[in-house]
Amino acid sequence: MSENKNRFNSKRNIILIVLLSLPVFYLGGFEGGYLRDEISMGSELKSPSDALAEWKLSDEAPFKYRVLFKAVVHQVASLVFSGSNRDFYYAYIIVSYSFFLATIVALYSFIRLNGFSPGLTWLGLGFFLVSPVVLMAYKIPVHVREDYMAYFILLLGLIAIHKNNFVLLLITFIVGPLCRETLLILPFTYLFFTRNHTLVKRLFLAGMPIIIIIIIRFLIGYEKYDYFLGLRWNIDNPIQVIGFSLITFHFMWIPLIVYLFIRKRMNLLSSYLDKSLLPVIGLVVTTTLIGGIFNEIRLLFLVFPWVIIAVLRVIEKNEQIGLSEWFSKSKMSIYLIFQPFIIFIVFYLSNKINIVGKSAYEIPYYQWILVSLLYFEMMLFALIHYFSVFRMIYKPKKAI
């Protein structure tokens, strides 16, 4: 009986995930995104709109070394379809959606593996789906291409570490560097923050992705490029760095900061995820600062598994707080008082920030203004709530 119920729940969950994923993917890809037509996709891939398969963007470093996603799209276009330009366009969309859906399913499994209830698991999925990397995925300046594939591989690797599944871990370490080099955070986490295997075995496995990256560059041909282009842009655009960093994890920054303060006090340092959280965030922030651009928020978002788990831990510790506490009269009064300030900040920044200057295709500025307003509203609401929670946790005990 229980097995049948579990199968029913699994099927129901998959159906719900598919139903949730379709409108979100459509919004991110087709409403102002480059998936909407061949012309926009050609601009993104730097190819003629009638010859998308040329994928001229992959002739440039470092994109030329990210071979896996391109290979999968080409294989689907040629094996499933006839290989025409229109077929390539459809194949790109199908492969992109498939990895988006696979990421959501893997995230659901990952959250459940960490011991959270079904309700909190769906809440974690909600945090992922309302994030700007997802809602604005295929729009400037986010530029999602192979990133959903990378997120899926990252989650599989973390699941493999959690289950101590050597074969799955080996597979992710092999395919990860074929997707993109930023997935080195996976062997970094495995090497320094797990004790699943001996040090020698961990060194061997963690060294494999690095060797593969070197081999790829040797086979394709190493090409020098401006490693510090991103650093110069970040230094020259501090407002965008701050703004896009804030909305990357939107309101989740607030409970994440609370988590960092209370994790020792609440005994939340038991897993490799908790121990590696700050080093992984530090590594991703540093590499994005030096070699990336902060307004391409898909780079910073790579740490979303760590962030979502930490946020859910804080929420789980305060589950006894009811809706009446969240929407108390005093909190809502403070929230309303700050409304003019939030609206002013969002519209002021929207008029001051030119996201990329000259763009390959149209930038949906009105969408960015709306989602930014949404994220700052969520941050304010979370800040008001968790400030009182933080005070309650650290309230000094009265002497008896």
Structure commentary:
The chain is mainly alpha-helical and 400 residues long. The chain has one domain (2-393). Helices cover 69% and strands 0% of the residues. It is built from 19 helices and no strands. It has helices at 2-29, 38-45, 67-79, 85-113, 118-129, 132-135, 147-163, 166-179, 185-193, 199-220, 229-236, 238-248, 253-262, 272-291, 304-317, 323-326, 329-337, 339-352, 365-393. Helix 13 (253-262) packs across helix 15 (304-317). The chain is globular and about 60 Å long. 34% of the residues are buried. The model has no long low-confidence stretch (mean pLDDT 85).
Largest sheet: none
- Taking all Cα atoms into account, the compactness measure Rg is 22 Å
Cα-to-Cα separation, first versus last residue: 54 Å
User: How much β-strand is present in the residues?
Assistant: under 5%
**What's the SSE pattern?**
HHHHHHHHHHHHHHHHHHH
Overall pLDDT confidence: 85
Uncertain residue ranges = none
Helix vs. strand class: mainly alpha
Shape: globular
Q: How many domains in all?
A: 1
> Considering DSSP H and I runs of 4 or more, what fraction of the residues is helical?
55-70%
| Number of extended strands | 0
- Counting H and I runs of at least 4 residues, what is the number of helices? 19
